[in-house]
Amino acid sequence: MAKISSFRGYRFNPREIDDLSQVVTQPYDRIDDNRRNDYYNRSEFNVIRIIKGKENANDNINDNQYTRAAAYWEQWIEDKVLIREPGPAIFPYLQEYTIEGKTHVRKGLVVLVDLTDKKGEVRAHENTLSGPKADRLKLMKATEANDGQIFMLYDDAENRVNDIIDQELRAGRPLMEVTDSGGSKHTLYRISKPGAVLDIAEILEDKDLFIADGHHRYETAVNYLEYCQARKWETMSNESFTHRMMTLVNIHDPGLTVLPTHRIMHSLEGFSATNLLSKAAENFEITEISSRDELYSHLDQAVTDGKIAFGLGAINLDGYRLFNLKDSNLMDSLVADEHCEAWRRLDVTVLHTAILDKLLGIDEAKLVAYSNVRYVRGRDKALDAVGSDGVQAAFLLNPTRTEQVLAVASGGERMPQKSTDYFPKLLTGMVMMKMTIDKSMGLALFDSEE
Model-level pTM greater than 0.70? Predict the structure, then answer.
């Protein structure tokens, strides 16, 4: 069950910032050093200074990227660079984007979700890493805020929530409109009418939530909740550590798109495409393909037919190869009952288990360490990489379907890294939440990690 509430969000002030596109960013985990430098240069008020600030040589416990993030929050509020909504609201968040010449619109809703609701069920499909969670927890301790979004899915086959949103937006004006560097348009609205908020809350009350993107952020919110509870701190409103800001999207939204993430192999000792094909022929029908367009067409058809298939480009290989799984029960013999059926039927788990691990010696530890694999979005980009920078081969995958994500998560399983790529990403800086915490009667505990 999803227990949601409205909140008085913080937004960048359009009276102080001429171009709001210059102050928002991609999610923190999509930001490398080059992109961070770009964001820094775009505006002195870019939210990068909060979510992923630069480290300095003289950083110490009292002055570091986390304490500076907190200082930016305070200063920007004081200077009215960040302004707070006049009253509680929930925020429809629409994203318009184009893929392969077709325009789509994805409809989300930014709300607060109660982390303490014992009847609530939040299901994950990815494993998390300790490093990113520790980083996000330090930031949350310093800022006491929700900056980035958590992308959640819910099942509303009758489309009741989106119908209410559509009705409310007929007379609504956007709070914020920005275009990201990829050309996607992001528009934020406000719904403050109590009746509409209550109607949406009642519809969502019996819905489970599934994490589409933001596993580290969700687990960090839970960790911070426990941190605050251990200190006997109290909340002063829903805008506190008991709730987390999230964007909810209906799994039946026609604008919901998952892109595939392809695997490129590098630094494999003694790699031979001929040997790989010979070994793989035991479990896969392998077809020689002369052109990329033909290969892409076959992969698209596999999606339509519900079949598991991969594309291969490799060094010293003429043309390309199409891999079709001969027996859909192959994974039953390879992993037996270690994983649920939904997990065993994923394209990505078949690739990782039957080819990368069994034939190329790339096990789970090497995948996590990026020892021999890099991840690439875009078929052409993956194939273009072959033969440069030590890349020996590229495997093209079809996208994981949302119903597969839900089935695996419902089975209590976690998918391999980079199994899903919901596009476009939710921008950071559209709307944010600052916590109110009463520490007056709490305990002062020493945190060794600080």
Answer: yes
